[in-house]
Specification:
Helix 3 packs across helix 4. The chain is built from eleven helices and 13 strands. It is an alpha+beta fold. Strand 4 (65-69) and strand 5 (74-78) form a beta hairpin. It starts with a helix and ends with a strand. It has helices at residues 3-17, 92-104, 128-143, 150-165, 172-179, 219-237, 247-252, 259-283, 287-304, 310-320, 345-363; strands at residues 22-31, 43-44, 46-59, 65-69, 74-78, 112-118, 184-189, 194-199, 205-215, 325-330, 336-344, 368-371, 379-380.
Length: 382
Amino acid sequence: MSNTLINIVKTSFISNFQTTPILIFSPGRINIIGEHTDYNDGFVFPAAVDKGIAAAIQKTDSNKSIAYALDLNSKIEFDLNNLKPSKEGSWENYVFGVVAEIQNRNKVVGNFNIMFKGNIPGGAGMSSSAALENSVVFGLNELFNLGLTKEEMILISQKAEHNYVGVNCGIMDQYASMFGIKNNALLLDCRTIEAKPYEIDFKDHQLMLINTNVKHSLSDSAYNDRRSACENIAELLGIKALRDATESDLEKIKNQVTPENYQKALYVIQENERAVKASKAIEDNDLETLGKLIYASHDGLSKQYKVSCDELDFLVGQAKTNNEVLGARMMGGGFGGCTINLVSKKEAKKFAETASKAYKEKFDKECSVYFIELEDGTHIVN
């Protein structure tokens, strides 16, 4: 967690509103493996990281509330009794959505001022949106003694994204950001919303992110499209979600679905198995196996689920040419964002330089490299 970030938000809040705020840090997340399995009731393996959103929040006597996005230097005033979504893509929908979902639970929220700033790289697929939603709901819960549990808070955050932002997301991002444990990854069962922590000590290896710095415009529509394909196949199979399907179940309806959708469902079934195997590999300190599972995950995302892109595939290809990288894959929704790499500590810097140079030559643009630490979930900063 960055103290600089917290201090900037605190100082700006006091100078704008002349009151001392409650301060909250809400982390972004990585996901080691288990991509696009969360909305299929499957397993995912995320961890909260040391980059996130710092928020300052306090009550106000005014009859309006104010939200202030410091990164965008953008401020909006709103009426709590008259909330509706702004136009698509507006940052304030994350704030409005959370307030509206709290009100839907018959909880009373008074007027407040909130200000936030983040250091999660935009478009990196590290879930700045979930971090923002969680910081808002956590802050309001504290400010107005709403008595919400963390479980209720993440469901509010998720609903805000469905109903105000228009992305029909699973629960992984909100869960990892809220419940993260320092130096642990969480094997989360997205059906029961229960997780088992696994302490991460990769000894002489580490996780490193490489951001393509691209975000292809397909992402939201393709996401909702993949989700409905999965739901349709689950319905054909007469099950609640693909989490309940085996490869042989899928084989039985092969002639009733398009070859593309068959591959998408097959990917989800296989990725779900990979997530469980990965937790076992971590428990056994078997990094070779973990690396192979991570590479297999990327192959599936690229060739079967088709949510990768040239830039992501290129970076994973670079990883494969280096024996010191045990595994690499695209992370997040796809069509851009980051690759996550399991790389030996002594080679990490050199690999980052080589891959960056090759990327620049190939695409004539820069990629960015991040080293991350695993952090605690959303919390109050004293």
